[in-house]
Amino acid sequence: MACRNCSPRPSEEARMTPWHDVGEPGDFPDGAAWPVRLNGHEVAVFRLGDALHALADRCTHGMARLSEGYVEDGCVECPLHQALFDIATGVPRCGPATEAVRRFPVRVVAGRVEVQA
Ligand code: FES
């Protein structure tokens, strides 16, 4: 178990980045994407079973919105050229995209979903 002195500390940027309320867990249907705009960031919130994830709502190959993509087997397929991104990690699983999509931290506090952006 990590103690207070040896556990990783959040960076100054992470501590200063605000959390935004985006709804209740039930607002996010399993296997679908929900687009939100937070602090100037276009973000797509996904539910995979009990887990919530947030990715930049922009494919790293082009300008397509991943919130308009098809979700299957833990991945979202870009609607433009069909790159596949792992929703939990943002890592591309299939080209033509080669760069990971930015991930945003997600938490549930007092029954509300919050995304840090
Ligand atoms: S814009 Fe997404 S794969 Fe080309």
UniProtKB/TrEMBL annotation:
Belongs to the bacterial ring-hydroxylating dioxygenase ferredoxin component family. Its cofactor is [2Fe-2S] cluster. The keyword GTP-binding does not apply. It comes from Pseudacidovorax intermedius. The keyword Nucleotide-binding does not apply. Residues 19-115 form the Rieske domain. PROSITE patterns: RIESKE. Keywords: 2Fe-2S, Iron, Iron-sulfur, Metal-binding. Residues 1-26 are annotated as: Disordered. It comes from the Bacteria. GO terms for molecular function: 2 iron, 2 sulfur cluster binding; metal ion binding. InterPro entries: Rieske_2Fe-2S, Rieske_2Fe-2S_sf. SUPFAM superfamilies: ISP domain. This is Rieske (2Fe-2S) protein.
